[in-house]
Amino acid sequence: MTRTQPGLPGRAWHPVASSADVVLRHVFQGRLLGRELAVWRADDGYVNVWENRCLHRGVRLSIAVNDGRELKCQYHGWRYSNRTAECTYIPAHPADAPARTICNRTFPVVERHGLVWTTLEHDRPEDLPVLPERGSQLPLRAVTVAAPAADVVGALRSYDADDDLRLASESDLLLRFDGASGPGLTLLVQPSDATTCVVRGVLHGVDEADPDVSRLTLLRLHNRALNRLRARVESEVGPLEPGNDEPELELVPEELAELPPATRPGRSASLRVRVERKWSAGVDVAGFALAPLTGHLPVAQPGAHVDVHLPNGCVRQYSVVNAPGEDDRYVLGVKREPESRGGSACLHDTVREGDVLALSEPRNNFPLRRDAEHTLLVAGGIGVTPLLAMAQTLAHHGLDHELHYFAQTEDHLAFHDRLAALGDSVRRHCGLDVAATTARLREILAGHAPGRQVYLCGPGPMIEAAREIAAECGWPVEKVHFEYFQNGQEIDKDSSFEVDLARSCLTVQVPPGQTILEAVREAGVTMPSSCEQGACGTCIARVIEGEPVHQDVYLNEAEKASGEAIMTCVSRSASPRLVLDL
Amino acid sequence: MPTPPCTDPVVLNLWHPLSAVAETAAGQDHTTTLLEEQIGYAWSPDAGARAWRTGATQHQLPTLVRYGYIWTSLGTPPKDLFSIPEYDEPDRRNMNASTIGVHVSAPRAIENFLDMAHFPFVHTDVLGSEPHTEVVEYDVDVSAERDEVLATRCRMFQPKASASSSAGAEVEYVYRVPHPYCSILYKTSGDDPGRKDVIAVFLQPVDQEHVRAHLLLSVLDDAHEDKEIRNFQQSIFGQDKPILENQFPKRLPLDPRSETPIRADKSAVAYRRWLSGKGITYGVIPAGR
Amino acid sequence: MITLFDYELSSDCYQARLALAVLGLHYSRVDVEFYPGREHETEWFTELSPLQQLPVLRDEHTTLYDAQAILVYLAARHDATGTWLPRRDPVLVGEVTQWLGLSRALASSAGAARLHESLGHVTDVTAARARAHTLLRTLDEHLWFGEQEGRSWLCAADHPTIADLAVFPDVALSEEGGVSRIDYPAVRRWTDRVKRIDGFVPRSGLFPGGSAAAPWPR
Fold first, then answer.
1. Residues A108 and A81 occupy one common structural domain
2. Which of A16, A423, A457, C22 has its CA 20 to 30 A from that of A517?
3. Does the residue A85 lie in any domain?
4. Is the peptide bond before C55 cis (omega within 30 degrees of 0)?
5. Strand, coil or helix: what is A12?
6. A31 contact residues in C (CB cutoff 8 A)
7. A250 lies in some domain
8. Sign (positive/negative) of CA torsion A163, A166, A170, A174?
9. CA angle A186, A187, A191 (to 5 degrees)
10. Residue B158 and residue B276 in one domain
């Protein structure tokens, strides 16, 4: 979709800003070959070069708020993540996790020689010119010239800032000057559009110690020369109609053009990560920082989990602890389960720093609403992991919340550093027995009021108790969100029944011992799944007809009673036939 | 490169607003631009409105005076304009809040007018406020009989719903799009909860990427001066203006794959389809181009 | 008691509101409807402001009708810190006055282009835009070299002055007049900084700025 301008040489990579232009909490507005760019630096130093356009309604992202971790569009508050430009939140639909595929257009970035470089072409190797690196480099003030690049290059050949400089070579919109005694200079012409370009210069071999030639003197000298050159070229070329070469805009993926949400991927392990760090995050809790082998990781929204494919063949789900904008690695917390079926023991005992693991893309079946006036997060033990991600998000957005963390002892509290950073919003409840826990939950949940939401994660009995207490305290079920680690129930697999797949026009038999999910997959229908024990919500299917037997711990009572959805990995049918929207 | 003058028959045959009568000095000739052509117009209480193409021929154009504005057409317009029955209710205060030039296409401006999800972000602490950002399900209908897009049961939390309210409340809206470049909204009146204030935007397409937005108010309000009511709407519109002027492309893309709608954009999706169905090409980027 | 005769969408009025806000002054507002009511041309208003200019500030027995005069007065009279108009420093007083001059030049170029675009005021808009670009180019160069010298504001001080408040509105609203700021990156960074001044108030047509950087927690 990229067009090169006729008569321009073929270098794909161009400077679009100087590093100093891209200050924290700012969005630089750039332009290259007729295409506008939003260039911004996250607080972790990473520079993003994006199409200057929110893919929702086309509003420029150069007017967005850079909050250090994400860009927030001014029009509807959509948030886009550092690095990947994935949409992390759509405020109009606070209960939904945005589809992973909602992603703004990004361009490759290299920061070098004091400049930010990019290319509009896909898969082009880095053909950045190599600038001399002897001595220190000093980028000049960029000067915009209202003239085509070829005219500007022509004028730059007789660049006259300083008698000391001699044109040494020229190629691809670049002119290199050697200094006879002083610093050398590279001048680069950035083609903004057909009738405008930006001249960027880098002095090299600047002797910082030389008291006679100060940095500022050099900068002013060259700025004057470039201004003279601009005035001359512009008067020679005469007034030009502004470049009207509107770039063609890439179409969004098919599934984003329609209103229904996109389908989610199956139980695949498309990500490869390296264990960058493994540490003791609390008693019996191992922390893992997992960095991508190549490229960027998809953003994990608060509440999301990943499937970890272990060397021993087990697949386990772990919530991602990351804060907003913490996008260069996933942080997981893994508790050693005494009755480990091979997951936590393997991660604790076998997996080491440097090992490579396969992960699924993150899935969010426990999304966080951010439209509550007050949010209660109630964690038991390692159930703190998704709630920690949520608390960090709420804190970052300045939204009112409390994180109640129940643990055996102070030492069992995991992720001390993150808890400390959250400050007063964290309430620690240690060493309480069952009765005391129940009493404390009663105190915490007593404050139901409109505009509040509660999120629960922890051991099964604790979630059960909290849900009961919440109901007694008058919390409507739709405001009580929960996630179980696992389904503690005995799953009955003895029944047999028929399932009609309405959209696929198929009928499958589910015999005793087989799940709906397995039967559906056998019939050739792709179906996402993750925990496969009725806890995570990934394999949900809509029921059109029939009487389901749920057996899951994902749906709340009202949802179960309505009979409108099931978890295909554990649910069965009381009626001889179930019709599913698959 | 100048855009070619309008050749879109659908748009040529529409009625277009030129000016608020209240802002048209009586008995004098005025000029304005409509669809890239210079148009002369005049109004007086006795003779009513006249409009003509300026230049040698002074070709006379059809005119209407409706809702306090002078309307004309460059083609063969329908007999009458869409109806706003509330306008004639005797206890309403009707006025032009403003006529403001905006660098955007008319359909982009209509879409913005239909949109509620932006209230907390663009009209912060006035028409919306974080964290009350949810747009709950509403109904959209395209009435074949009336040939208009209708959105009903639209609800949004507003900290200060109008000049006559100071407290927050959930406000209910109804939106109508009876004309490709005109839209009308009805919102719960602060003074009389049983009735609705009417705010309409009539866009005069100067060219494909510039409009003059005429903002009609027909409100139930005994507490405020006209200028206070206008001031409130002007400042609201002033908040939308830079958003509209920062949208790209400026013409509304009708290909469903050019932008990413969500459920809250139901009315916009219906509006875009409705425009496509009419075969409109002016002010839009038709699908498949 | 201070009274401001004010029109929300006027950039001169906004200068006065900004100054009142950053100085933390309480005041009452009287709406003067510039458009469509043309209230600034009425007899009662002409009495206050003979040139029919908005805003007008009344403070006890003083009435002033020029935006820059109002800024100077407010800072001289009500700024206990003495930073907004550093009267004891002749260099800064000179610089402030110079930038107040630039703010007038912006009003008659960028401001005029804006009135042409939004309200159809008759003006040579091509000339107005060209002049606005010349001013913005000058401003960008000044601010860029300021950054090189570790300076964030228009004047050579480590704090903002009324010069920043006077120049900001017509710069920040320039795009409504068809004057893009894409070629003035140092100006764009400075507008972000102005939006973060303690007490800053937004106005219709300006986007919120977001907060300044905090340490990156790890």
1. yes
2. A457
3. yes
4. yes
5. coil
6. 182
7. no
8. negative
9. 140
10. yes
Q: In the A/B pair of chains, how many CB contacts fall below 8 A? A: 105
Considering the domain architecture, whether residues B276 and B192 belong to the same structural domain is answered as yes
Instruction: Please name the residue ranges forming H helices in B79-127.
Output: 106-114, 119-122
- Domains identified in chain B, total number: 2
Among A111, A126, A141, residue at a domain's last position: A126
Quick one: pLDDT band at residue C80, thresholds 50, 70, 90? very high
The closest CB to that of A43, out of C141, C208, C216, belongs to C216
Looking at residue A153, its pLDDT comes to: 95
Among B98, B124, B238, whose Cβ lies nearest the Cβ of C205? B238
**CATH, domain range C2-78:** 3.40.30.10
* Residue A176 sits in the same domain as residue A70: no
pLDDT in tens, C83-126: 999 999 999 999 999 999 999 999 999 999 999 999 999 999 99
B180's tokens = 């490709």
- Could you report the per-residue pLDDT of C2-41, keeping only the tens digit for each? 999 999 999 999 999 999 999 999 999 999 999 999 999 9
User: Are A281 and A194 found together in one domain?
Assistant: no
My answer on whether A306 and A409 are in the same domain is no
Residue A184's closest CA among A160, A209, A208, A167? A167
Collapsing DSSP to helix, strand or coil, A554 comes out as coil
Decide if C39 and B239 are in contact by the 8 Å CB cutoff: no
Q: So what's the pLDDT on residue A162?
A: 81
Same-domain status, A6 and A95 = yes
CATH 3.40.190.10, domain C90-195, yes or no: no
Indicate if A394 and A458 belong to the same structural domain.
yes
Q: Which domain holds residue A110?
A: 1-126
State the nearest Cα–Cα gap between B139 and chain C, in angstroms. 31
Could you tell me which of A291, A288, A352, A350 has the C-alpha nearest to residue A319?
A: A288
Q: Report yes or no on A64 lying in a domain.
A: yes
Per residue of chain B (289 residues), give pLDDT as tens: 344 589 999 999 999 999 999 999 999 999 999 999 999 999 999 999 999 999 877 899 999 999 999 999 999 999 999 999 999 999 999 999 999 999 999 999 999 999 999 999 999 998 999 999 999 999 999 988 889 999 999 999 998 655 556 667 889 999 999 999 999 999 987 777 789 999 999 999 999 999 999 999 999 988 889 999 999 999 999 999 999 999 999 999 999 888 998 999 999 999 999 999 999 999 999 987 5
| Of C160, C7, C179, C177, nearest in space to C71 by CA | C160
Among B55, B81, B107, where does a domain finish? B81
Q: What is the CATH number of the domain that holds B30?
A: 2.20.25.680
Residues A477 and A509 in one domain: no
Residues of chain C neighbouring B20 (CB-CB closer than 8 A) = 36
Q: Residues of B near A (CB-CB distance < 8 A)?
A: 1, 111, 117-118, 120-122, 130-135, 242-243, 246-249, 253, 255-266, 269
Would you mind telling me the total number of residues written for chain B in this entry? 289
Cβ contacts of residue A197 below 8 Å, gap of 6+?
A: A144, A145, A147, A148, A149, A152, A189, A190, A191
**Among A358, A366, A346, CA closest to A484:** A366
The whole-number pLDDT of residue A408 equals: 94
pLDDT beneath 50, residues of chain A: 1-9, 260-266
Q: State how many domains chain A has.
A: 5
- The answer to whether the beta carbons of residues B127 and B117 sit under 8 Å apart is no
Q: Checking phi first, is residue B255 left (phi over 0); if not, alpha (psi -120 to 50) or beta?
A: beta
C-beta atoms of C185 and A31 within 8 A = no
pTM of the predicted protein model: 0.90
Domain ranges of chain C: 2-78, 90-195
Chain B residues touching residue A55 (CB < 8 angstroms): 259-260
Q: Among A106, A126, A146, where does a domain finish?
A: A126
Q: Domain boundary at B13, B46, B81, which?
A: B81
Clarify whether residues A8 and A93 are in a common domain: yes
